[in-house]
Amino acid sequence: MTTPATGRPLRPRLVRWAILLAVWLVVAVLVGSALFLNSSRTTALAGHDAEVHPTLDGHASLSTGPVLPDVRMPLDVPLGVEIVLGKTEVESTEELFSRYALIASNSEAQAAKVRDVVVEMALASALRGLAAGAVPVLLYLILGPVRRREMWEEVRTLRPRPLLAVVLVGAVGLSLWQPWSGEEPEISNAREWIPLAEFLGDEVPVPPEARTIQVRVDTTSTGTRRLIGSALDTYSKSQVFYDTAAQQAGELELREPGEDETVVLLVSDRHDNVGMDRVARAVAERAGANAIFGGGDDTSTGAAWEAFSLDSLDETFNDFDRWFVTGNHDHGAFVPDHLNDRDWTELTGDVVEGPAGGTLLGIPDPRSSGLGNWRDEVDMTFAEATELVAERACAAEERVNTILVHDANLAKKALEQGCADLAVGGHTHVQSGPTLFESPEGDLGYSWTNGTTGGAAYAIAVGSKPRRDAQVTLITYDATGRPVGLQWVTLQTTGVFKVGDFAELEFPSAV
Questions:
Q1: 224 and 320 fall within a common domain
Q2: Other CB atoms closer than 10 Å to residue 201's CB: what's the count?
Q3: CATH classification at residue 467
Q4: Which of 336, 337, 353, 391 lies at a C-alpha separation of 20 to 30 Å from 308?
Q5: What's the mean pLDDT in 236-241?
């Protein structure tokens, strides 16, 4: 068989192209695999700057530094990953271990983040491998048959120029490889991996899901053993508390929405309590909610080490419609940038489309706070922000159905002027409302303050259970996007739920 254009035999051409394709794929696989196994990415993980490396040992390994023992657990695949923890912000070692325990009890978001990072490295390495594999193929095609025969003749007759090229290529490869320069063994590699239960001893019970975990130690102080034991105790209590609460939330007696109604879940003041996320999700599913308002203070300091809290919130409600404002503890660029990158809608002073096609307005809290109870006004004063909300609400082309702010007092003037149906927020960690406002013209509006969803005392919510009662609010909208009622759900520190009656929001028939 010959090709119609050239009359040359077709089979040798097919064989040659098959060989070139094979060369491309082999080189691509070799180079891509080498690049992947030697690649790394830096990300925020478990409250730390962390460096992620792929491995082939079939384990997820956590390198914690020079003081604490390294930890690993087997995976169900031959591919593994090593995570080297870097710096973080923490007040004490005890607080750090409590944070680890709480994250471990709700670790899906952190595991998903590691998977995404590894997939990103694999794709990047594969693309580079394909590009590298194309180099010899392109070189073969560019040289053409005449020049290839000439080069082969030069090599076959041992002419100096091609031999020199081969030597130079080999020298460059050796200089990059440098097999003669051995590295001193790392101290960590001299330690042995032992089961966690063996490390802790009989006096510390290990949960069943942690029995496959191993630690790498040589000598570790009694204090460190006690800290790890305390973290395991916090993990076990947290797992039981929040799992039980999520299960009970699925059986609560909540108002069922009508066919033309939309339910939105309001959370505020989570303050890094990722354990409450699955409870809030269970309440939302029970009530038929498909959207969420983030009322701010999802973190305690607004710093990058708190990405684990935002990642958990995002992973838990990744299939919801999502709007948010930042609170005084979220001040800075990190929190809004992180959520915006994950397709949350940030409210920054413009009227946008909200639930059920209604109108929604919100602004960030103008204050900045740390772990204490102080609040510094940064970009504008609280009074100026209140004026801005009223100005934007009253100037809107359509009546504003909902104002979402961190502190409901930011919307007080807008409500007094009759420019909005409902304002919701948090901040005080204590529920309040619904409070009725009536403008001089007879327009009605309501204010509602949600308690702390994280069960936080001040800005701290880390522990085996909420530090105070934890609350979410369900907001119901009619087909026009107007709010028609509220219902609060509170998880008490005892693990018992309290459910408020559905509070109807009544408006005049014509506005």
A1: no
A2: 9
A3: 3.60.21.10
A4: 353
A5: 80
Average pLDDT over residues 227-250: 80
Closest CA to 313 of 106, 83, 95, 476: 106
The Cα–Cα gap between 471 and 339 comes to 22
Do 294 and 324 lie in one domain? The reply is yes
Residues facing residue 61 across a β-bridge: 72, 82
- CA torsion sign for 388, 263, 484, 473 is negative
State whether 302 and 211 are in the same domain.
Answer: no
Average of per-residue pLDDT across 455-476: 83
Residue 180, pLDDT > 60, answer no
- Is a pLDDT exceeding 80 seen at residue 186? no
For the record, the structure tokens of 28 come out as 């691509």
By C-alpha distance, which of 169, 119, 136 is closest to 30?
Answer: 136
346 shares its domain with 494: yes
Q: Cα Rg for the chain, rounded, in angstroms?
A: 30
Residue 221 belongs to domain spanning: 192-243
- The answer to whether 419 and 394 have CB atoms below 8 angstroms apart is yes
**Distance (Å) of CA 173 to CA 27, 37, 166, 176, 179:** 15, 19, 11, 5, 10
Please tell me the predicted confidence (pLDDT) of residue 438: 92
Rounded to whole angstroms, the Cα distance separating 511 from 502 reads: 24
Predicted model pTM? 0.73
Based on the fold, state whether residues 263 and 312 are members of the same structural domain.
Answer: yes
103 in a domain, yes or no? no
- Indicate the number of domains in the chain: 2
Task: Classify residue 196: in a domain, yes or no.
Answer: yes
Give the angle subtended at the CA of 260 by the CAs of 255 and 262, to the nearest 5°: 60
Q: Of how many residues is the chain composed?
A: 511
Same domain membership, residue 338 and residue 211: no
Confidence at 375, pLDDT banded by 50, 70, 90: very low
- Same domain (yes/no): 364, 499: yes
